[in-house]
Design brief:
four-stranded antiparallel beta sheet; alpha+beta; SH3 type barrels; rod-shaped; three-stranded antiparallel beta sheet
Length: about 160
């Protein structure tokens, strides 16, 4: 019995000696099991990585004010206005000495909008090519094909106002 108690006492001293010196705990047979240490959390792991020299980079985006509105649709709704069929020549100010200085007033009958145009001006798919005394020549571009058409000034009939 003496030998047995001496061996138990030596095992306990050896276990206490390793714990006191910073070693792992020795499990004494018959002693209640201690709880395992809690696992490291993600935050602790991240802090350890940062301290070890890992550099975290953040991607930064900047937008210039001069660019297009990112919330505006790229698809256009409806047709391109004005259409040739909806335009009427309201007035022409023709300059015979300098035809490039001539001005015509066109009216969109559908919308009721008025356009003051000169040679070279563009209205949707229409380009004004010439202004004559009683007509306006227009170049129409549709599906990559250009065709020319004219809009004539309608004279008021006598007796109507």
């Amino acid at each position: 019995m003496r030998l047995r108690s001496a061996l138990t006492w030596m095992a306990m001293c050896a276990g206490l000696g390793t714990v006191a010196c910073g070693g792992e705990e020795a499990v004494v047979p018959g002693a209640p099991a201690s709880e395992p240490p809690p696992p490291q959390t993600e935050m602790a792991a991240t802090e350890a990585e940062v301290q070890s020299g890992t550099e975290l980079l953040r991607e930064v985006f900047t937008y210039t004010a001069s660019g297009r509105d990112p919330f505006e649709s790229l698809l256009r709704t409806g047709g391109v206005r004005p259409l040739l069929e909806d335009l009427r020549v309201t007035a022409i100010n023709f300059d015979a000495r300098y035809p490039g200085g001539s001005v015509a007033v066109l009216r969109d009958t559908t919308v009721g909008k008025r356009y003051t145009v000169r040679v070279g001006d563009e209205l949707g798919r229409l380009r004004i090519t010439a202004i004559r005394q009683d007509e306006v020549l227009v170049m129409i571009e549709e599906f990559g094909v250009e065709r020319q058409s004219s809009l004539r000034l309608r004279r008021r009939q006598e007796g109507t106002q």
